[in-house]
Design a protein that fits this description.
The complex is a heterotrimer. By secondary structure, chain A is an all-alpha fold. Chain A has 15 helices and no strands. Classes of the chains: A mainly alpha, B alpha+beta, C alpha+beta.
């Protein structure tokens, strides 16, 4: 994290060598995706009757939702608690959440065997109120909509006074401009509701994502299977939200050659050890309470995974961020954020995939190359879209100045 | 291990005893439903469960074609040899069921009640269909239908040892026979379970040092001494002998069985330092029974086999009361022809030593008689 | 934003989501018919002939092939699970030394309070009052959450179908039972190890057998309580855990998730309260700065 020049005289180019690499990954993913839709899940994935959920649900959906938690946590802190100093972080986090949730939906759709019937979820006569997945689906769908609405002011800001419709449509420029202004004004009046709604919806489905696996019962290893899963999923989403903001802000600053906002990020990061502490203590109490603590030392793969998840992903960043030093050092801050993200990602993997054992012994599941390709491709596409929107919309403070 | 092998071999005697039987008229219970005079097992087998010293039991293990012990109990008492179960045959042909083999074998463990489970000792055997309805009924879910009952009855044992549960094991496919039922019981005899080939001798290493070795002459016991499998093998199971995949399970009640016949206390009667050869009457007793006695059961001279009575030395026990008028010399293996048929016994035989072979040179001093006359000796 | 707007929007959102919260449930135990059917399997009787597999194929995935193909016992070498084309399979558990092997027929257990039906978000899995748990492909979106939820994981999926894959599992031969016939597997069982009937009757019969032949069985009817009770019940002479039956508690996995879910969303109180709380936080935290 080298300190970049305070202001760039020119706007960064979209394509850099790194972006070409990312594009190649995205294209590979798109090819694998096409194969999935043409040939079916069986031909492309290693999913089986024993392991009906694989990499896509664990990474694209479970981790995707968790890592998009930056959106609602920053919105809460900046807009509801009115910590105005964090405002510069809100828009990048919102953009991440919007793209992230869009790809969560795409990821779900990719995994659905009858993806063309996805709209059944919206038919009230098909609703099944006992289903945790139903609640998650409705919340995520609503939340994606809310996120798009929350993003609209940014679109308005980008185009108000700069509407340039192509060719013969140019005569509508004025009309479009006034429509945008009216929209912007209207949104401004109700935005608080959407922000609150966004936070409520997030709390609901972040926790319900944990409830999803409670029904798997003994199929999920006792290190993770607990009725407290929804609480832990919510708490860990709170933890990873700020961490994700730190992570991507520092990454974007480096990529766009901007000065890292270490100071403000450091202040945000003060929250992380508090949240991690609550989360970690909760996990420990739960383990002891259920009598599952001995499994930590059983030496199995699960215990190693738990140790990695808890030691590297909870204890280490907690210790790291407790001191002032880490929060002032860009690289330490980045490391701590990475550890928190690692911990949450590994937790979601453990709960959805690695800690799952079918009751009838089946051939172990290892994702196919195509599954990896699709997941990597989705991540690459998100990066590309983020980069495009960050460069073309007033999202990142530093780039705004460059643009204007 | 050896003991186990021995055990297998003992039951093998049963298999070995069975030669192809002549086809008998089978009873087709399914079609003609003949009235069976509800016989009781005890009606024929007076000694169920008791010691095997009652003559009727002797025939239980004699399979058709085995003349060693004469006609089988089944034939004597009218119990069906073969029952054709055809009530429910549609896809598959009727089952030709070898009742006698099962009845015989069942004596090793369980007895008739193994199958006739509602016919305890002394009660009439009731037909399966009296309790088990031909059609499956929702009203009596506790009762298997006739088909279920038959299948359970057969397969609950057969799965244990033959591991056969294919339809074709018991049924012939209708398609293959054009609807005709195969009723030739001779085709079935001993094709369905592995023939057991017992060794002539089994040697047991016992901890009785120094005479640790016990040589058990299985063939002698099973063939010469006229013992039946069940005389030694009790409380066994089909799988114990027939199921090669499970390893031998059957164990003879060795000491008990031996002592039930050999009422001797001297260890050396069985235990030895050396392996012992099969029983040879000439070597063991100094008297060669010769070809005339080759087929004579031990008990004919020695009385009850358990007691080992020493026979009278002059053989009068058998040969003393012979009536020259009625004696059929053919049973000695030497049919008398021509003038020989008119001779008095003492013309050829020494009246005081009946066991000595007849002499010819009293008449044929020149030894002019042909070697094959007056009869061909077996 | 005016106070009225706020209230109106809040109400609208809450109403929308509340509708979800009170959507019809997948089948409570109380909805079940007293006459509901089940099947009792006596594992001590089963001979492992696999005719039930054939009958099931013949009923659900014809052509079933030749009957005598069932005689191939080499399939017992590995433990199999039901597949999308073979909805029931028989597995062999080798007996103890000298003992006979035990054959276990596996298929959907048709739980009394099925986790799959509770999990399905579009109601494609449904517990019918008459007993069977029925799959409705016309609703299914193919998420396979039912398979994740199933405590036995006996459902299987047509992964190789690119467009219209279905979850495949035993439907307890609804077509046959409506005609008054026995389910195909029950009908063909040569030894009648399977008994179809009212679940209550089957339980009574099972306990009668346990009482009358205590040395022939272990004293347990598998499925009486497992996972909240199942329509398929098993009797055995060997502990079920040795035969590959999962050891399960007496409550349905769905009971816990539904308790959590309905606890959180009961009357939609918690989300609405959170909404109000956040609104209050927003107003309160804002107020001091705004007031001049």
């Amino acid at each position: 994290m080298n300190a970049a020049p305070a202001a760039m005289p020119t706007r960064p180019r979209y394509f850099t060598p790194g972006v070409w690499v990312v594009s190649a990954i995205a294209l590979t993913g798109a090819a694998a995706l096409a194969a999935r839709y043409v040939l079916g899940l069986g031909a492309v994935t290693n999913l089986s009757d024993g392991y009906p959920w694989g990499l896509w649900i664990a990474i694209d959906v479970a981790c995707g939702v968790a890592l998009a938690a930056g959106g609602f946590t920053t919105a809460f802190i900046a807009h509801l608690v009115h910590r105005e100093e964090f405002h510069p972080l809100v828009r990048p986090a919102l953009l991440t959440a919007m793209i992230g949730y869009t790809f969560v939906a795409l990821g779900v759709m990719t995994d659905l065997g009858r993806f063309w019937a996805m709209w059944h979820v919206m038919l009230p006569w098909m609703w099944q109120g006992n289903s945790v997945l139903f609640e998650v689906a409705i919340c995520v769908m609503t939340y994606v909509t809310v996120l798009y609405i929350e993003f609209l002011p940014i679109v308005c800001e980008r185009f108000i006074g700069r509407v340039r419709l192509p060719g013969p449509l140019a005569r509508f420029n004025g009309l479009a401009d006034s429509a945008l202004r009216r929209l912007d004004a209207g949104l401004g009046r109700v935005m608080t509701v959407f922000i609150i709604l966004g936070v409520v919806l997030s709390c609901m489905h972040q926790s319900s994502l944990g409830t999803l696996m409670v029904i798997a019962g003994p199929k999920l290893h006792p290190l993770w299977q607990t009725p407290m899963l929804p609480m832990f999923f919510l708490l860990s989403a709170f933890c990873v939200g700020p961490a994700m903001v730190v992570f991507e802000s520092l990454l974007a600053a480096r990529s766009f050659r901007l000065a890292p906002e270490t100071e403000i990020l450091g202040r945000l990061a003060r929250l992380i050890p508090i949240l991690l502490g609550v989360y970690g203590i909760g996990r420990v109490i739960d383990l002891l309470n259920r009598g599952a603590a001995p499994h930590v030392l059983e030496g199995s793969a699960a215990s190693v995974l738990f140790a990695a998840e808890f030691g590297l992903g909870v204890v280490a960043p907690f210790a790291l961020l407790l001191g002032q030093r880490a929060r002032r050092s860009t690289s330490r801050l980045f490391l701590a954020a990475c550890l928190v993200i690692f911990g949450v990602v590994l937790n979601r993997l453990n709960v959805f995939l690695l800690g799952f054992t079918p009751p009838i012994e089946s051939a172990p599941y290892a994702p196919s190359p195509a599954e990896y390709a699709v997941t990597a491709g989705f991540i690459a596409m998100m990066v590309l879209i983020y980069r495009f929107l960050a460069l073309n919309f007033p999202v990142i403070e530093g780039l705004k100045e460059v643009r204007s | 291990m050896r003991a186990a092998l021995a055990a297998i071999a003992v039951l093998a005697a049963i298999g070995a005893a069975g030669a192809p039987r002549s086809a008998e008229r089978p009873v087709d219970r399914g079609r003609t439903a003949p009235t069976m005079a509800s016989p009781t097992c005890l009606g024929c087998h007076a000694s169920f469960g008791a010691d095997a010293d009652v003559p009727v039991n002797r025939g239980r293990f004699a399979h058709a074609g085995d003349d060693r012990v004469g006609a089988s109990a089944a034939r004597r008492t009218g119990t069906p040899d073969v029952v054709i179960i055809g009530d429910l045959a549609n896809l598959y042909g009727a089952v030709v069921f070898d009742h006698r083999v099962h009845a015989d074998m069942s004596q090793i463990a369980g007895g008739c009640v193994n199958c006739h489970h509602h016919a305890p000792e002394g009660s009439p055997v009731s037909a399966c269909r009296e309790c088990h309805a031909p059609e499956r009924s929702a009203g009596t879910p506790t009762h298997p239908s006739l088909k279920g009952a038959y299948h359970r009855q057969c397969l609950s044992c057969h799965r244990d040892w033959s591991h056969e549960n294919a339809c074709g094991f018991c049924h012939t496919e209708q398609a293959a026979t054009g609807g005709a039922r195969v009723v030739d019981a001779s085709a079935l005899a001993h094709t369905r379970f592995p023939r057991l080939e017992p060794s002539a001798t089994y040697r047991y290493e016992t901890p009785q040092a120094p005479a640790a070795l016990v040589s058990f002459q299985h063939r002698d016991h099973a063939q010469s001494f006229g013992l039946q499998c069940v005389d030694c093998h009790r409380a066994g199971s089909c799988a114990g002998c027939h199921d090669g995949s499970q390893g031998p399970q059957e164990s003879m009640h060795r000491m008990d069985s031996c002592r039930s016949c050999h009422a001797v206390n001297a260890c050396g009667f069985c235990h030895d330092q050396q392996p012992r050869p099969p029983f040879d009457h000439a070597v063991a007793t100094g008297w060669d029974p010769g070809p005339q006695h080759q087929h004579t059961p031990c008990v004919s001279c020695h009385g009850r086999v358990e007691a080992f009575l020493r026979p009278s030395s002059n053989c009068r026990g058998c040969h003393g009361g012979l009536d020259p008028q009625t004696f059929d010399h053919r049973i000695t293996g030497v049919p008398l022809e021509g003038s020989h048929a008119q001779f008095a016994c003492v013309r050829c035989h020494d009246a005081s030593r009946a066991e000595a072979p007849a002499t010819c040179h009293g008449c044929h001093a020149d030894r002019s008689y042909p070697p094959q006359t007056p009869g061909q000796r077996n | 934003m005016s106070r009225r707007d706020f209230v109106r929007l809040t109400g609208a959102c809450a109403a929308t989501l509340a509708a979800a919260g009170v959507a019809p449930a997948g089948g409570e135990a109380g909805d079940l018919d007293a006459d509901r059917r089940g099947v009792l399997v006596d594992l001590t009787v089963c001979i492992g002939c696999r005719r039930c597999e054939w009958a099931c194929r013949n009923e659900n995935n014809p052509p079933a092939g030749e009957l005598h193909e069932c005689d191939d016992q080499s399939v017992f070498r590995s433990r199999r699970r039901p597949t999308s084309t073979q909805l029931t399979v028989v597995n062999r558990s080798p007996g103890p030394a000298g003992g006979r092997p035990v054959h276990v027929k596996t298929q959907c257990m048709h739980c009394e309070h099925p986790a799959c039906a509770s999990a399905c978000l579009v109601g494609a899995m449904r517990k019918t009052p008459a007993g069977p748990v029925i799959y409705d492909a016309s609703r299914c979106i193919g998420c396979r959450y039912c398979m994740v939820a199933c405590p036995f994981q006996y459902a299987s999926y047509e992964y190789d179908n690119a467009l219209t894959p279905q979850v495949k599992k035993c439907q307890l031969c609804g077509n046959r039972t409506q005609r008054g016939e026995l389910p195909a597997c029950v009908a063909i069982c040569p030894v009648e190890a399977l008994t179809y009937g009212r679940r209550d009757d089957l339980l009574r019969i099972a306990h009668e057998r346990l009482r009358s032949c205590p040395d022939q069985y272990i004293d347990h009817v598998y499925g009486e309580h497992e996972a909240g009770g199942t329509s398929w019940l098993y009797l055995s002479d060997r502990p079920f855990s040795e035969l590959g039956f999962p050891t399960l508690g007496s409550s349905s996995p769905a009971a816990l998730t539904e308790a959590i879910q309905h606890g959180i969303f009961k009357g939609f109180a918690a989300p609405v309260m959170l909404f109000g709380l956040l609104g209050a936080v927003g107003k309160l935290m804002h107020a001091p700065k705004e007031s001049p």
